[in-house]
């Protein structure tokens, strides 16, 4: 079944329900949204020659056109490749070339930079601007019926950085996305027609994935006029739109809470805030509950099992009388209903309760594999289980508490940053001899990037400018520490554990 059937059903059964809002203004009802997607799908198939299974990329910030272009891809039987809007054009060009995308939608202001970056890779991908002439031409086409897709067909190609510094394309099928949507209803929250999801976090990631659950209930979708996160804007939307739901990184949650406490803004219009994508410290979630009440649900997932490994329910977070309450709110919850979760040793044997091991997950939410990367697929998927690379413990009631990551990923503001990628860029500077990048705990961002650099004749400002030329701004080191040498073991491997200890000290 094609995931676009969720929109098809909503448009057919509830045509007059408000579907898409810009701020607090309704732009399209479900009938209109469905028709626009069907028209764009016709244009993609007949005017641009996209055949079923072809990849179409989206490199956009949160935009009123995002959902219609995304769903138009599925309507036409194509695979969508949503790309983080914060990435550098060269990073985007690499992804486009890797997946062989034939078309890419972006904003008018990014078209030229992206065309130049694509030219460097030799890609012949066509770059289109939303709200531009091609978009208008697509909307003038006759609508086509939705395309049938097998459950195993590729629906969403999600690029997530790897430890090698190059991103990996996570292949998410229609079955994966439908199972994820079912998990939302069973383990995260119920949705009524009057509810509204607001896209304060990037639609290319978890926030956009959750659009499917709200599409299934013909509920409302709200794009903030700012295109992103602004605490005052969100509290205003909660008051004006009502029954507001959102997915947020812990950083966003903290800023909302700070604003509510400082301004005294009403929280009555918020229904549910789902948080995930990084560690939420116990003191922060306690403060959030104190300020906003039982409106929170935590999820733990990865791109490889999107939003769907464990969940910590609203009821558990609110149950302060439970003797294990503090331990449980420090956890990431219990396995979601359509998956199995185990904590195992290096041989794949389940470890006793309370023993640290690697978290593994199995179920219909787990990816089909990595795009054109059989070696990485074989490493991550073993005997039907996804090995997450996260270390944790499980208690007798099934609550999982994460302890560390076996990989060196830094999670800052809900975004994954892989040290190798930053290190490789810094090492291209002629003055840099050696570098090691680690994460440092930060109260606001969860973690920030710190680079230990062995170099001569260069300062932090120059290195910062160098990074901006090659990678997204959010990946840049927050701090540079210039050292005479890096600590290493007898085999010459940099001891990052020692560097992290220096930061803690």
Can you lay out the helices and strands and say which pair or pack?
Layout: H1 5-13, E1 18-22, E2 25-29, H2 30-47, E3 55-59, H3 66-75, E4 79-83, H4 89-99, E5 103-106, H5 111-121, E6 126-129, H6 133-139, E7 154-161, E8 167-173, H7 174-188, E9 196-198, H8 206-209, H9 211-216, E10 220-223, H10 231-241, E11 244-248, H11 250-263, E12 270-275, H12 282-292, E13 296-302, E14 305-312, H13 314-318, H14 325-329, E15 334-335, E16 339-344, E17 357-363, E18 369-370, H15 374-380, E19 381-382, E20 385-394, E21 400-405, E22 410-412, E23 415-417, H16 419-427, E24 432-442, E25 446-455, H17 460-468, E26 479-482, H18 496-504
Parallel strand pairs: 1-10, 3-4, 3-5, 5-6, 9-10, 9-11, 11-12, 12-13, 25-26
Antiparallel strand pairs: 1-2, 7-8, 8-18, 13-14, 14-15, 16-17, 17-20, 19-20, 20-21, 22-23, 24-25
Helix pairs in contact: 1-2, 2-3, 2-6, 4-5, 10-11, 11-12
């Amino acid at each position: 079944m094609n995931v676009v059937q969720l929109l098809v059903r909503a448009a057919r059964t509830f045509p007059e329900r408000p579907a898409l809002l810009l701020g607090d203004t309704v732009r399209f009802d479900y009938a209109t949204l469905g028709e626009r997607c069907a028209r764009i799908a016709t244009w993609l198939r007949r005017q641009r020659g996209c055949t079923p299974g072809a990849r179409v990329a989206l490199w956009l910030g949160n935009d009123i056109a995002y959902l219609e272009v995304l769903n138009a891809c599925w309507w036409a039987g194509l695979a969508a490749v949503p790309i983080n809007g914060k990435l550098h054009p060269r990073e985007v060009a690499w992804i486009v070339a890797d997946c062989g995308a034939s078309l890419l939608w972006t904003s008018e202001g990014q078209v030229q930079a992206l065309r130049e970056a694509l030219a460097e890779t030799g890609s012949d991908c066509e770059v289109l601007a939303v709200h531009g002439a091609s978009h208008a031409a697509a909307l003038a086409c006759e609508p086509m019926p939705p395309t049938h897709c097998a459950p195993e067909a590729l629906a969403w190609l999600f690029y997530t950085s790897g430890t090698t510094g190059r991103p990996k394309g996570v292949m998410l099928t229609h079955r994966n996305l439908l199972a994820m949507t079912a998990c939302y209803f069973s383990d995260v929250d119920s949705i009524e027609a009057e509810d509204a999801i607001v896209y304060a976090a990037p639609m290319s990631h978890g926030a956009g994935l959750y659009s499917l659950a709200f599409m299934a209930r013909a509920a409302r979708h709200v794009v903030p006029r700012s295109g992103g996160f602004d605490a005052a804007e969100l509290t205003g939307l909660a008051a004006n739109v009502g029954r507001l739901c959102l997915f947020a990184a812990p950083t966003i949650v903290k800023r909302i809470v700070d604003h509510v406490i400082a301004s005294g803004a009403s929280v009555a219009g918020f229904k549910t805030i789902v948080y995930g994508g990084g560690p939420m410290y116990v003191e922060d979630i306690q403060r959030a509950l104190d300020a906003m009440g039982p409106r929170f649900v935590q999820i733990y997932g990865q791109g490889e099992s999107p939003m769907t490994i464990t969940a910590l329910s609203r009821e558990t977070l609110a149950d302060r009388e439970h003797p294990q309450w503090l331990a449980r709110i420090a956890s990431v919850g219990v396995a979601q209903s359509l998956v199995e979760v185990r904590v195992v040793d290096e041989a794949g044997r389940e470890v006793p309760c309370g023993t640290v091991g690697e978290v593994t997950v199995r179920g219909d939410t787990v990816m089909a594999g990595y795009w054109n990367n059989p070696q990485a697929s074989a490493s991550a998927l073993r005997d039907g289980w996804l090995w997450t690379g996260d270390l944790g413990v499980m208690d007798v009631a099934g609550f999982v508490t994460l302890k560390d990551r076996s990989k060196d990923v830094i999670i800052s503001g809900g975004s994954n940053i892989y040290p190798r990628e930053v290190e490789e860029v810094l090492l291209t500077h002629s003055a840099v001899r050696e570098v090691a990048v680690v994460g440092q705990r930060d109260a606001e961002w969860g973690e920030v990037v710190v680079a230990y650099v062995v170099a001569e004749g260069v300062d932090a400002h120059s290195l910062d400018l160098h990074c901006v030329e090659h990678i997204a701004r959010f990946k840049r080191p927050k701090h540079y520490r210039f050292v005479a040498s890096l600590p290493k073991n007898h085999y010459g491997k940099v001891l990052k554990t020692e560097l992290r200890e220096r930061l803690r000290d």
